[in-house]
Write a structure and sequence with these properties.
- The protein is of the alpha+beta class and 178 residues long.
- It has 2 domains: 57 residues, no CATH class; 106 residues, 2-Layer Sandwich (Alpha-Beta Plaits).
- It contains 6 helices and 7 strands.
- The strands form 2 sheets. It has a 4-stranded antiparallel sheet. A 3-stranded antiparallel sheet has the order 6-1-7.
- The chain starts with 6 loop residues before the first strand and ends in a 5-residue tail after the last helix.
- One of its GO terms (molecular function) is monooxygenase activity.
- Keywords: Monooxygenase, Oxidoreductase.
- Pfam families: Monooxy_af470-like (PF13826).
- This is DUF4188 domain-containing protein.
Length: 178
Amino acid sequence: MPGRPVIAGRTTADAEGEVVVLLIGMRVNRFWAVHHWGPVLFAMVRMQRELSRDKSRGLLRHVLLTASPRTYYVVQYWESKEKLYAYAHAPEMFHHKAWAIANRKERAGKVRGHVGLWHETYVVPEGAYEAIYMDMPAFGLAAAHGQVPVERRGRRAKDRLAYRSRTGERQASGPSGG
């Protein structure tokens, strides 16, 4: 099957320092209301395309997933929470326009109950995340930050959680290192 190459053996994500993860999605509450949830789904796709075209916005990687025939969501990995906030509030970007439209429709009572929207944001400090992949192409955190042999960070989850990069040390102690 075409796509990213499978990396043989066990690997882990090469993330250093803080990791920013956004889960954002929608739930179709009424299947027959395609004219309500269809535009939301297409807006999600359009925003992903917009972010993929402009790497300076800070989106490192994303994956579109489905939890059921009703629920669709995107897992996004960001360079920083500041870049995530900047995108969310940039008036020239599609997210700003799409959210304004959704808010107007909600205030007018035109979408209530047809489609659910949600997001969860996680800012995870180094030492509070770990990952392992076996015979996998780069996926998730590893697709966003790179993939290294598991031995570089530790074969056990507790060892990978204990790993500290120089980046993480600088973040913990401040820019001056002390």
